[in-house]
Design goal:
Length: 294
């Protein structure tokens, strides 16, 4: 995702990428970044966060468990007016960014259904080849700042809208991720397993209904009336995709399950809504994260 957005933004802006992997940094500095069959675009890559302390916008694309350590080096170093933009999965990213940078940081959060997969260092391809869409809103930023973020994304050729209340959109995507990602990941399958297999489909449906009940108890007005039908719509848009949780489990990497299903379990406890399906897949995914390689 970082490469997809960086490539789009690099059309009209100077872009610097921060990555902890030296081989990735070296390749990008030598060859640029590319998306689909587009010509490479020149950007700067570095392992040193201090190289972007003077940035005009800071986009955060790390996995949710890594948000706090990734953002913490910028504490006290950025211009206090520098907008921070998070389009990450799950809940808790807003809180982690504010812990690192302060509660008054001009934070813009949102969701995107842009999807891409890496085909090399600094090279990505869109899933399905289709342009996605992004919705952004304020988590501490002024409306003019949110509008500036929308404009910079649109100038990069990305579709972007503004929501005056972003929370329903965050919870809508959370619900879809909670229903799709762990089921496909535990089965080591494409997302289409949920529509192809009745047992997988029933589990995803129960996860969606349960997650919607938590949102309702929190008085979050989800941007759809039927949670399961919404999940089916999301599935229809990327039936052959392998979601990030599936890819992470396959690589024996830590997943975002704590920030997705775990966040729903925690919210359910706060409002007194049982979440046995979310808790079950949370425990299963975490067990599989720790399972030894065969």
């Amino acid at each position: 995702m970082g490469t997809l957005f960086a490539y789009s933004l690099a059309r009209d802006n100077d872009v610097t990428l921060v990555d902890v992997r030296g081989d990735v940094v070296d390749t990008i500095n030598e060859s640029g970044i590319s998306l689909d069959d587009g010509a490479p675009r020149k950007v700067i890559a570095t392992r040193d966060p201090s190289k972007i302390f003077a940035t005009d916008y800071l986009f955060v694309f790390v996995k949710a468990p890594n948000t706090l350590p990734a953002v913490r080096p910028f504490a006290g170093q950025l211009n206090p007016a520098t907008p921070i933009v998070s389009l990450q999965n799950g809940l808790g990213n807003e809180e982690a960014i504010k812990v690192a940078l302060g509660g008054t940081v001009p934070l813009v959060v949102g969701i995107t259904n842009e999807a891409a997969y890496a085909v090399g260092h600094g090279r990505s391809r869109r899933l399905g080849g289709a342009l996605g869409s992004t919705v952004v809103g304020s988590a501490g930023a002024t409306y003019p700042t949110v509008r500036q973020v929308q404009a910079i994304l649109q100038r990069g050729g990305l579709e972007c809208a503004i929501a005056y209340d972003i929370r329903p959109h965050l919870w809508g995507k959370l619900l879809a991720n909670a229903s799709i990602n762990p089921v496909a990941a535990l089965l080591d399958a494409k997302n289409s397993i949920i529509t192809d297999d009745p047992n997988a489909g029933e589990l995803a449906r129960e996860l969606a209904i349960e997650s919607a009940a938590v949102a309702k108890a929190l008085r979050v007005n989800l941007p759809f009336s039927n949670a399961w039908e919404y999940v089916r719509t999301v599935l229809a848009a990327s039936p052959d995709g392998r979601n990030s949780m599936t890819i992470d489990l396959e690589a024996r990497m830590r997943t975002e399950v704590d920030q997705i299903n775990g966040a729903i379990v925690a919210a359910g406890r706060r409002v007194g809504v049982p979440t046995p399906y979310n808790e079950a897949v949370l425990r299963l995914v975490k067990a599989k994260e720790r399972a030894p390689r065969e």
